[in-house]
Each structure stands twice: as C-alpha cells, then as structure tokens.
Amino acid sequence: MGKVAIVTYSMYGHINAMAEEEKKGLEEAGCEVTIFRVPETLPEEVLAKMHAPPKPDYPVVTAEQLVDFDGIMFGIPTRFGMACAQMKSFLDSTGGLWIKQALSGKPAAIFVSTSTQGGGQESTALTWVTQLTHHGMIFCPLGYGSPGTQYNMDAVQGGSPWGAGTFAGPDGSRMPSDNEKKTAATQGKLFGGVVQKLSS
Ligand SMILES: Cc1cc2nc3c(=O)[nH]c(=O)nc-3n(C[C@H](O)[C@H](O)[C@H](O)COP(=O)(O)O)c2cc1C
Q: Widest CA span of the chain, in angstroms?
C-alpha cells in the first residue's frame, strides 16, 4: 500500500478543506494518507491580528519524516503568486535530505489556494516545481484528468493543469465549491494511482 503525506499550510482553512478531498481520492486509490501541517513561522500576536483561527489537529511535519512516504502532495496558499513563506521555510529545512538526495524519485503533486481569479493558481504551482526539481522528485501534474469539472464554464472555479485549486475570495469567506472539491478528489485518486504503481 503506497503511503502518501499531504504537507500543508493553511491560515484560514481553505487548503485544509482541499486536503481532506485529496485524501478521499488517495484513499480510493488504496493509499494510506497522513495530512501534516508545516511549522508556523508567524508569532501568535500577528496571527491574531490576521484573524487566523486555531490550527487543525494535524501533526507538524519534520523534514526527516518525508523519507518514510512513497509520495508527497503539497497544499499551498498563495502569497504574491508564489508559495507562502511557511511552506518555503519548511522546504529550506530539507537541506539534509537534499544533500543525500533522499527524496529523489518520489512522486509529488501540488494543489493551491488563492484569494482571487488569476491570483497565482498556476504560478504558485509552477514556481514550487523548482523545489521538487532540486530534490529530484517527479512532478505529477493533474493535466486535464478531471474533465467533468475542469471544462466547466458555468461557475467561477480554481484549479489548473498544474493541480487542483480553490478561490478563497478577497475577504477569505469563500470556501471550496463542489467542483473544486471534486477536482481535488480526482487529483488525489490519479496521484494515488501513480504512487501505487511506483511503490509496488
Ligand atoms: C501576504 C499575503 C499575500 C497574498 N498574496 C496573494 C496573491 O498574490 N494572490 C491571491 O490571489 N491571494 C493572495 N493572498 C491570499 C491568500 O492566498 C489566501 O488567504 C489563501 O489562499 C487562503 O487559503 P488558506 O485559508 O488555506 O490559508 C495573500 C495573502 C497574504 C496574507
């Protein structure tokens, strides 16, 4: 059974909601899934000023734990069209793995959250591929693997061939739509299939 880590950061819960859908799809593909969160880098007083709710009950990931998994998904909220500093800070802590190329050959996938349309749905994922590349990981894009939802033009929705995505809205009040959740679950199932093949 392929073991998958979903490594997340989420300030307001959008990435968490998408991670739960990804997990459903991964489990459908027969994978064993653990959702982690990366260490917070902001002080409590700043989080309070940003109206961040309490963190979910996901374990905080350490770099060394990644080695135990057959595949890794990264759930990333956008900051200025790229990954948030918390995710980058965590990846910066993986230098010890990088020098040994301990993650080389592991499949990886990405899903994102942005406030606005065009706010970084694609650029957040594509700039994260640099992290995967230096580790020798295999980027598994969604492509158009969820045509039923990705070709839909009747509603506003996040996501791209780079991976599933959601729009949080300018004030963060919009939670993932049914289409976005379906795309995330399908991405999980497709990625889970790849992990199963590579780990068997
Ligand atoms: C400093 C900062 C920069 C941001 N930059 C962008 C951006 O470039 N584009 C965008 O659409 N949203 C941007 N956002 C909004 C976040 O992406 C949004 O809050 C996040 O996707 C919500 O997901 P979460 O609840 O899982 O954290 C930014 C937020 C902050 C605090």
A: 48
- Give nearest CA residue, ligand 1 atom 25: 12
Atom of ligand 1 nearest to the CA of 8: 26
CA distances, 140 to each of 54, 74, 87, 99 (Å): 32, 11, 19, 23
**Predicted model pTM:** 0.98
Cα of 63 from ligand 1 centre, angstroms: 24
Q: Where along the chain do its domains lie? A: 3-199
Chain segment 129-139, per-residue pLDDT in tens:
999 999 999 99
**ipTM metric:** 0.99
Architecture of the 3-199 domain: 3-Layer(aba) Sandwich (3.40)
